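Summary of Year 1 activities. Much of the first year was spent building the evaluation harness for sequence design. The harness presents a backbone, in tokenized form, and records the residue chosen at every position. We chose the following record to illustrate the format because it has been used consistently in internal testing since the harness was completed.
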């Protein structure tokens, strides 16, 4: 055999031995790893609580971090909610403390916040203000028949004001709902205080364009009690919606006297109540009669319920 052939055979033998040793090593390593795996499984079978702890430990650091992040997020969100609630409550208390006729804020309150500020107060608390003025001891209407209402209204400058009104208890729920809807729709009202702020003088109240209800008085020019005496009538923006009576000579007598420019209802002007007006629609839908639909006289400011 030649030397070259012997060298080639020797190299092949060396490669074969190397391959065989490598294969044997891999088989040994596989067997060793298999034994370790079987050993761990045996431990888990015999000690399940240890296995559970081991599995839980693998995820514990990530869970702790996520838990801390979630807790911090919840804390911040809770503090923000509480802060907003405190602000809302403080604002509510502030507006409650304001006197009627005062500006509550620039612009408007959200509907859900405003709703709490349409409510019935204690009529006995305002008795010192009305005794002997709009209210007098009489056989027709008792103090217990009346309800003192606190409400918001949209001023003609577009801001929110505190209003008040005394009505008969029979219509208090209707009135609260109507005026809340007017406020939510930014319906302009110039003033809404008790007629007692004008000494019970209906003419002075109308001249000030004051929206009001109860006033124990007779109908002008008669001995008959007005429905205002029972708290069953409301006058809304009277300066722009006057009481109009046609005289025999064709002239018109207006109350308030300064409202002659608004007697002709064929004209278009701001704050006019007609069949297309929101206040007209709300009051008539609640069963009120509008004075603007009367035949002999026209009382465009007036809504009443029998």
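For this record, the design step produced the sequence shown next.
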């Amino acid at each position: 055999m030649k030397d070259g052939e012997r060298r080639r055979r020797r190299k092949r033998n060396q490669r074969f031995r190397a391959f065989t040793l490598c294969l044997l090593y891999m088989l040994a390593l596989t067997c060793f790893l298999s034994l370790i795996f079987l050993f761990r499984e045996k431990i888990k079978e015999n000690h399940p609580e240890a296995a559970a702890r081991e599995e839980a430990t693998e995820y514990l650091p990530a869970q702790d971090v996520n838990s801390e992040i979630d807790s911090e997020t919840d804390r911040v969100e809770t503090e923000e909610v509480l802060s907003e609630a405190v602000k809302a409550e403080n604002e509510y208390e502030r507006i409650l403390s304001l006197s009627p006729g005062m500006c509550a804020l620039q612009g408007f309150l959200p509907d859900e916040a405003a709703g709490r500020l349409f409510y019935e107060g204690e009529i006995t608390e305002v008795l010192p203000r009305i005794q002997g003025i709009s209210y007098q001891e009489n056989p027709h209407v008792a103090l217990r028949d009346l309800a003192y209402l606190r409400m918001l209204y949209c001023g003609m400058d577009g801001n929110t004001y505190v209003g008040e009104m005394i009505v008969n208890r029979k219509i208090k729920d209707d009135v609260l709902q109507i005026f809340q809807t007017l406020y939510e729709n930014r319906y302009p009202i110039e003033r809404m205080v008790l007629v007692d702020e004008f000494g019970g003088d209906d003419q002075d109240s109308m001249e000030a364009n004051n929206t009001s209800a109860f006033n124990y008085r007779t109908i002008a020019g008669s001995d008959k009690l007005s429905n205002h005496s029972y708290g069953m009538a409301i006058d809304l923006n009277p300066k722009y919606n006057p009481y109009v009576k046609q005289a025999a000579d064709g002239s018109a007598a207006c109350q308030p006297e300064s409202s002659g420019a608004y007697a002709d209802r064929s004209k278009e002007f701001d704050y006019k109540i007609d069949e297309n007006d929101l206040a007209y629609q709300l009051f008539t839908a609640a069963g009120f009669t509008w004075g603007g639909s009367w035949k002999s006289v026209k009382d465009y400011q007036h809504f009443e319920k029998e």
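The chain has a mean pLDDT of 87. Quantitative recovery figures across the full test set are reported in Table 2.
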